[in-house]
C-alpha cells in the first residue's frame, strides 16, 4: 500500500447499530495510516452519530430512505445532484464499502476513487460486487465489528490488532440523575422484542432497589409502550423523545443500560457503559455487545428468550465488576 495515500471514504449509511460496529475502523486507520483523512457517508438521521467520532474529517449526508418515497419529485433529484456533487468534490485513494449492499455499492461507484468491498463469497448482496474495483475475501461467520476491521485492513494494507476502539466523544449533560438505569425495549423488528411482562418484572426489581428507571422512545408507539411499562411503578418514567446526540449523552451517564438487539444498545456498549443485550431472534455471536469489551454482555439467542432472573443476575455481576 502506497505511503502517499492520503484519504479514504467510508460508505456505511445505515443502520444505527451497524454504523456503531463499523466505527472502530476509524481508529484502526488512524493508528496504521496516521496521515490519512477519513470521510464517511451516512444517512441524514445518523450524521450526528458519526460526528461523535472526532477522527472523522467530514460526514457526507445521504437521504436514500427519504428519496425513495418521492423518487419522481423534482426536489428529490435536485438533492441527489447536490449529493453527487459533494461526493465527487475530491478524489479518494480508497472508497471502502462497509454496507455490503447494492445501495452502498452505488454510492461508492458515484465517488471518485477505487471502490473496495468483500468478494461474492463474503458479501451480503453479491450483485454489489459489480461496482468494486478491488474485492477481498472476508470470513462471513464473524462479528460485524471484525468483518469491518478486516475489510479495511485488507483494503489499506494493515493487520487490525487489539480490542475495538469506537472513538465516541459525547458532550456532557447538565442533568444529574444518579443512580439510574436505561431500559431500551423497542426495535424495528417485532421478533426481537422482549415480553412486556418480563420488562415490568425487571423495572419493578430495579425501582424497588432505589434506582430510577428511564424508558426512552423514538415514536408514538414506543412512547405508548414506555408509558405502559412504567405505569404504577414508582421510580420508573417514560423519557421524552430526544435527538440522537442527547440520547447518547443520557446513555453515557447511565449506571446500566439493558435492551433488546437494537442500535441504542450497541451505542451504549460502544460508549463503555455497563450494557446487557437481550437476544431472542438474532445471533449474539454475529452482532452481540460483548465484542465491545468486558463491560458488556449478551443474554439469550435465536429462539431462546432470557428470563428476568437471568438479566438481574447478569446485571448484578456486571455492575460489581465495573464499579471498581
Outline of this structure?
This protein has 324 residues and is of the alpha/beta class.
Shape: globular
Give the ordered list of helices and strands.
EHHEHEHHEHEEHEHEHEHEHEHEH
Any idea what the radius of gyration is? 20 Å
Number of helices: 13
Structural category is alpha/beta
Overall residue-averaged pLDDT value: 95
How much β-strand is present in the residues?
15-25%
The residue fraction in helices comes out at: 25-40%
Write out the strand line-up for the largest beta sheet, numbering strands in chain order.
3-2-1-4-5-6
Largest sheet: 6 strands, parallel
Q: Would you report the number of β strands?
A: 12
Runs with pLDDT <50, length 5+?
none
Distance between the termini: 43 Å
Describe this structure in words.
By secondary structure, the protein is α/β, with parallel strands linked by helices. The chain is about 40% helix and about 15% strand. It is globular and about 60 Å long. The model has no long low-confidence stretch (mean pLDDT about 95).
Amino acid at each position: 500500500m502506497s505511503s502517499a495515500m492520503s484519504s479514504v471514504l467510508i460508505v456505511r449509511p445505515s443502520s444505527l447499530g451497524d454504523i456503531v460496529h463499523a466505527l472502530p475502523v476509524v481508529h484502526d486507520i488512524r493508528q496504521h495510516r496516521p496521515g490519512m483523512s477519513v470521510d464517511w457517508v451516512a444517512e441524514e438521521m445518523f450524521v450526528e452519530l458519526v460526528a461523535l467520532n472526532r477522527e472523522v474529517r467530514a460526514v457526507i449526508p445521504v437521504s436514500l430512505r427519504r428519496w425513495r418515497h418521492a423518487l419522481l419529485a423534482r426536489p428529490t433529484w435536485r438533492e441527489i445532484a447536490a449529493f453527487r456533487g459533494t461526493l465527487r468534490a475530491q478524489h479518494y485513494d480508497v472508497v471502502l464499502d462497509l454496507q455490503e449492499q447494492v445501495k452502498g455499492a452505488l454510492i461508492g461507484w458515484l465517488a471518485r476513487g477505487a471502490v473496495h468491498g468483500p468478494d461474492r463469497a463474503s458479501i451480503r448482496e453479491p450483485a454489489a460486487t459489480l461496482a468494486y474495483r478491488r474485492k477481498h475475501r472476508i470470513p462471513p461467520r464473524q462479528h460485524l465489528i471484525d468483518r469491518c476491521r478486516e475489510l479495511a485492513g485488507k483494503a489499506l494494507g494493515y493487520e487490525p490488532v487489539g480490542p475495538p476502539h469506537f472513538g465516541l466523544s459525547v458532550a456532557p449533560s447538565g442533568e444529574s440523575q444518579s443512580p439510574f438505569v436505561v431500559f431500551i425495549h423497542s426495535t424495528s423488528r417485532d421478533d426481537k422484542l422482549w415480553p412486556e411482562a418480563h420488562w415490568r418484572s425487571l423495572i419493578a426489581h430495579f425501582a424497588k432497589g432505589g434506582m430510577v428507571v428511564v424508558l426512552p422512545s423514538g415514536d408514538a408507539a414506543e412512547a405508548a409502550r414506555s408509558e405502559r411499562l412504567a405505569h404504577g411503578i414508582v421510580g420508573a418514567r417514560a423519557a421524552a423523545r430526544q435527538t440522537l446526540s442527547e440520547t447518547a449523552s443520557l446513555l453515557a451517564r447511565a449506571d446500566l443500560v439493558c435492551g433488546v438487539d437494537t442500535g441504542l444498545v450497541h451505542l451504549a456498549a460502544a460508549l463503555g457503559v455497563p450494557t446487557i443485550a437481550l437476544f431472542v431472534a438474532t445471533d449474539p455471536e454475529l452482532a452481540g455487545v460483548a465484542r465491545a469489551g468486558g463491560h458488556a454482555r449478551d443474554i439469550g439467542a435465536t429462539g431462546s428468550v432470557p428470563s428476568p432472573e437471568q438479566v438481574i443476575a447478569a446485571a448484578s455481576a456486571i455492575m460489581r465488576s465495573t464499579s471498581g
